[in-house]
Amino acid sequence: MSIRDEVIAQMQRVAKQQSKRLAPLTDETPLLETGLDSLCLAILVASLDDELGLDPLSSETNTHFPSTVGEFIAVYEAAAADADV
Q1: Domain CATH code at residue 19
Q2: What domain count does the chain have?
Q3: Tens of pLDDT, residues 46-83
């Protein structure tokens, strides 16, 4: 499963767990319009850390929190690429 697929799957899982209605997800969808609230996003980040072994959002080098689904996925894809180095 690709990083993109895993992020989307985890977003869907968290939304279902938290009884949230998930908006259609595109790269341009703002994170604040996905249907996930701040608690859901925190759960999502923790779940991705568990599944992927990555937590790029807590990195001191990452000072910008992604604002769209595409940016969020890109942060994880970049972290996975860096981890493979």
Answers
A1: 1.10.1200.10
A2: 1
A3: 999 999 998 888 766 656 789 999 999 999 999 899 88
What pTM did the predictor assign?
A: 0.89
Taking a C-beta distance cutoff of 8 angstroms, is the pair 7, 41 a contact? Answer: no
Residue whose C-alpha is closest to residue 12's, from 39, 31, 29, 34: 34
Q: In Å, how far are 16, 37, 40, 44, 46 from 20, measured between CA atoms? A: 6, 9, 9, 13, 18
- Compute the average pLDDT of residues 32-36: 96
pLDDT computed for residue 58 by the predictor: 78
User: In which domain, by residue range, is 27 found?
Assistant: 3-84
d(CA 3, CA 80) in angstroms, rounded, equals 8
